[in-house]
Amino acid sequence: MATHRIIVIDDSRVIRMRVKDMLPAGNFEVLEAKDGLEGFNLIRSASPNLIMLDFLLPKMSGWDVYQEIQKDPLLQAIPLVLMSGRKEEVTEKLQEPFKGFAFVEKPFEKKQLIEAIKEAMKKASDRPAAANTLTGAGETNLGKEVAQLRLEVNQMEGEITSLKKQISQLIGFIKQKLK
Is 44 within 8 Å of 7 (Cβ atoms)? Predict the structure, then answer.
């Protein structure tokens, strides 16, 4: 059973598969998103242990996803590896040394990927825990539970919206048949 959930957000299927293949088998559940919007929705609903984010994405850029993550203390606590084949576009918006996330330049090898993941984990653990900012330093476990519940609520809200749409379609269909 997978012990870590990783979200890989990249418009290149090759990169998503490459990351998946480079991770040790059995320890990771890898969820994939092909654009920034899909990726951000997945981040909010899937409670990942790590986010791997391409900087240049369709629908919602990696920069926009990064900014949305920074707005939420719960999401900020998730280790982040930013990926790009054009480092200069990243450094245009975010100055080096990078704080709060690791950077890996594409194309990368397995060793570089593993080092970036370790760096992201270390940087995330060096930040004040999101739970501490929400509940006070002594209540970390309670804060984690609150964070988990908030993520579950966000996921349920999405499911409720989808169900409402389906019910509306069903009612329309029934009304049509009754005519």
Answer: no
Query: Cα(129)–Cα(55) distance, rounded to whole angstroms?
Result: 25
User: How far is residue 26 from each of residues 4, 23, 50, measured CA to CA in Å?
Assistant: 9, 9, 16
Residue type, position 78, single letter: I
Burial 125-140 (b: 16+ CB within 10 A, else e): eeeebbbbebbeeeee
pLDDT in tens, 44-64: 888 888 889 888 888 888 888
Per the omega criterion (within 30 degrees of 0), is the bond before 48 cis? no
How far from the centroid of its chain's Cα atoms is residue 55's Cα? 13
Whose tokens are 């280790």? That residue is 79
Query: What is the per-residue pLDDT across 71-93, written as a single tens digit (0 to 9) for each?
Result: 888 888 888 888 887 767 766 76
